[in-house]
Design goal:
Layout: E1 3-7, H1 13-24, E2 28-32, H2 33-38, E3 48-54, H3 62-70, E4 78-85, H4 93-101, E5 109-114, H5 130-152, E6 157-158, H6 171-188, E7 194-198, H7 207-211, E8 217-220, E9 223-226, H8 237-241, E10 247-251, E11 256-257, H9 272-276
Parallel strand pairs: 1-2, 1-3, 3-4, 4-5, 5-6
Antiparallel strand pairs: 7-10, 8-9, 10-11
Helix pairs in contact: 1-5
The structure holds flavin mononucleotide.
């Protein structure tokens, strides 16, 4: 029984999850969503299809949404999704369900795994201590053993959101969470200019260009330039992998930098090459 896991990962958390599942589930192949989009490789031939990705603005990252719209999944009859998150609720599964429903399929299983936050802009962002990371990792691996059992038995199972927040009874709030917020995250937010820039610490090493999953960054001599006409995937790899923390995010609205005084988070086992190899 062949399983293909499509994954997207800005700083290695979701990659960690995808790799752990590959180790736990026999005959599993990992395919980076960024590569599938680049190659327009949308026809999937497998018995089980999984999606592993981070939470972005309570919902799916932009490239995952793009992939779901184009994929062709007729050969498969079991589908699962795993969202990693840094601390809030995740409300993106209905988008996956409706993409599958259009092809006469359903999302059989869904899971949310808490990992360290990689968005230094978020209020709850903090540099995780070694002990916190070890605990998150241990808990994640325990949950992934459950995930593996569900998938191997091809069960229908939807993990309840452990944040303890459920809004299922409030239809207006549900509408906001499942329609308005994804619309903002996928279509409005990339157009509203949150400026990435490299400050005076930049050494011109080019790592930001290397890890930029949307190919938005191009080096101009020894300076990274964020190309205006390319949609940013908001992976924050440039921000988190810059070895001298020179990459910053500036808000035009608030006229301030969000990140100069904040730390950075790449997953301890995810190298620049691991991230860049998704392209
Ligand atoms: C642009 C952006 C938005 C994010 N939004 C959320 C969010 O709404 N809720 C949350 O819990 N975590 C959020 N995060 C944190 C990530 O979901 C979390 O750290 C995830 O595990 C990162 O996975 P990755 O390393 O595979 O990219 C966000 C991260 C980024 C970069």
């Amino acid at each position: 029984m062949k399983t293909i896991i499509y994954y997207f990962s800005g700083t290695g958390n979701s990659l960690f999850i995808a790799k752990a599942l590959k180790n736990l589930i026999p005959d599993t192949e990992l395919i980076p969503i960024v590569q599938a989009l680049r190659d327009k490789d949308y026809v999937i031939k497998a018995d089980n299809i999984g999606f592993v990705f981070p939470t972005h603005g309570l919902t799916l990252p932009i490239p995952v949404n793009q992939f779901l719209k184009n994929m062709e999944v007729s050969s498969a009859n079991y589908f699962f999704a795993v969202a990693s998150r840094g601390g809030t609720i995740f409300r993106g599964f209905p988008i996956i369900s409706s993409a599958l429903k259009k092809q006469g399929k359903k999302l059989n299983a869904s899971f949310i795994i808490s990992m360290a936050a990689n968005d230094p802009k978020l209020k709850f962002y903090h540099d995780p201590a070694k002990e916190e990371l070890e605990l998150l990792q241990k808990n994640a691996l325990m949950q992934l053993e459950q995930v593996q059992k569900v998938i191997s038995n091809r069960e229908d199972y939807h993990m309840s959101d452990k944040s303890g927040v459920t809004f299922t009874k409030n239809s207006l709030l549900n509408y906001v969470l499942e329609r308005i917020i994804p619309f903002m995250t996928h279509y409005i937010s990339p157009k509203v200019k949150k400026y990435f820039y490299a400050d005076s610490k930049c050494t011109g090493c080019g790592i930001c260009e290397k890890v930029c999953l949307s190919e938005k960054i191009r080096m101009d001599g020894d300076k990274p330039v964020w190309q205006k006409n390319t949609t940013c995937y908001l992976c924050y790899s440039c921000l988190n992998y810059c070895p001298v923390r020179a990459v910053q995010i500036h808000s035009k609205v608030w006229m301030k930098s969000y990140t100069t005084k904040r730390g950075r988070y790449p997953h301890p086992f995810a190298t620049v090459e691991d991230i860049a190899s998704q392209k």
